[in-house]
Specification:
Blueprint: H1 8-27, H2 38-55, H3 67-89, H4 93-106, E1 112-115, E2 120-123, H5 124-139, H6 142-156, H7 166-208, H8 214-233, H9 237-257
Antiparallel strand pairs: 1-2
């Protein structure tokens, strides 16, 4: 016989589960885009919270005596969901930085395009990389990993039993910035190298043929060379996305470990 009883303590536990899941959906990549309606985000959070509530062991909520005590538990769960989602979302800024460096070399740094998914102005190359990485993330089912990761946190970090470690969080952020610069420069290296060679060639031509005004043709050559390199190296994006997705896994794991 199926037991449909639902006590007041069960409601308190379910609300805490829902708060962490909703905070994660709000901060995680792909799920937090402006293209996803708020009704869909709310329904997804509620549906996932119901699943987690039934498949995870019902850990007792820490004892509290006032509304402020329960509010503190809700705040801790909200912070946990945001931190875990932010750990993955911050890795998507790698392609934006790489695109900004590429645009500076191409002479397109003043070209800004409106990104409807984030309501921000992004450079041309950065927007190209961002959409390509998002498409690869969907094709490779990376968004399924995000859902599995947040579900596993309810076992690793029981509801209401979070212990934040500021030292681990700072170590994780410092390590991320090291990987951030490395992966970003690997992504924009072909364009930077090609433009550096082009600048060297233009410098030599300026010395050998000073009557030719290299500045008037240098801008067009940079744009043409950069676009050609982007077209030739576009096939490297799947392998580069592996580095970004690996960094997402590392960041999410590190964020979870810092709250255990």
């Amino acid at each position: 016989m199926i037991d449909y009883s639902f006590s007041y303590n069960d409601l308190e536990y379910f609300l805490l589960v829902l708060v962490r899941m909703a905070s994660f959906v709000y901060a995680a990549p792909f799920f937090n885009t402006q293209g996803v309606p708020r009704q869909v985000k709310t329904a997804m959070s509620l549906f996932l919270a119901l699943i987690v509530y039934h498949i995870t062991p019902n850990v007792s909520v820490p004892e509290y005596h006032t509304v402020l005590g329960y509010s503190a538990l809700v705040l801790k769960e909200a912070i946990a969901g945001v931190v875990i989602g932010f750990g993955a979302n911050i890795c998507t800024t790698i392609v934006t930085f790489a695109g900004r460096v590429s645009d500076m070399e191409l002479g397109l740094s003043m070209v800004q395009l409106f990104d409807p998914t984030t309501n921000e102005n992004v450079g041309f190359t950065g927007l190209l990389y961002q959409y390509a990485i998002t498409l690869i993330m969907l094709i490779t089912n990376m968004h399924h990993f995000f859902l599995r990761a947040i579900v596993e946190t309810y076992t690793l970090i029981p509801v209401g039993h979070l212990n934040f470690s500021s030292e681990k969080i700072m170590t994780t952020i410092i390590q991320f910035f090291c990987d951030y610069m490395l992966i970003a420069f690997q992504l924009c290296l072909p364009v930077v190298a090609a433009i550096m060679l082009l600048n060297a060639v233009l410098g030599i031509l300026t010395k050998t043929a000073p009557q030719i005004h290299m500045f008037s043709i240098g801008v067009q050559l940079k744009i043409f060379t950069g676009m050609t390199v982007l077209f030739v190296t576009i096939g490297l994006l799947p392998s580069i996305s592996d580095f970004i997705f690996k960094e997402m896994r590392i960041m999410m794991t590190a964020m979870v470990e810092s709250m255990r």
